[in-house]
Request: fold
Amino acid sequence: MTHVQRLLRLPLLGSLAVLGACATPPRPVPPQDLIVRVRDFAIDAPDSIAAGLIAVHLLNAGPSTHHAQLYRLPDSLSPVDAIALLPPTEPLPSLFVPIGGPEGADDPARPVTSIVPLAPGSYLIICRFATEQGQLHYTLGMVRPLIVTGPAGGGRPSLPGAPDTILLQDYAFGGPDSLPAGPDTILVLNRGPHEHHLALARLLPDRTLQEAWREFTV
Reply:
């Protein structure tokens, strides 16, 4: 592919310059908003949304930290039957396909947004955090079906690139050594066979990365 692109680049350069003066590049379609409101212990969200890029906004009105993780269900499994399959302890059934979603911040009241591509089908919105007693939140009612509508056989919507990309794999991170201050969009790609998540944490002013790493590895 790279070799072909090099062969075509020079002879098409003049034509591309002429076409560029006439054609208007398509505008990127902004993601749809899906508001997920959570509290101890319930999830409130729309019953359905159209397929495409979805900005999942997690709004927490409870004192505890929560997830809003999305899992795609097989076409042969209804959301009601899927909820009945949820075990009292992890792991989740392997037929639930993890898609991603926002995870609660250090301050539960801080809203968190995650953009995910959703193809038509049935999904569950699940909180997998546990209480201090070890009860998983989804066993206490924090699970909700979501139907993603669209044409039958519709493909998986593509997620556009972002200025900063972080790769997850078994078991390492790959990405930039620094990020700009202020609002930023980070593309998170999982290249490993296992489910992973990414959480960003800010160190206290008097702490160092070496100290934090020692606490993680103890």
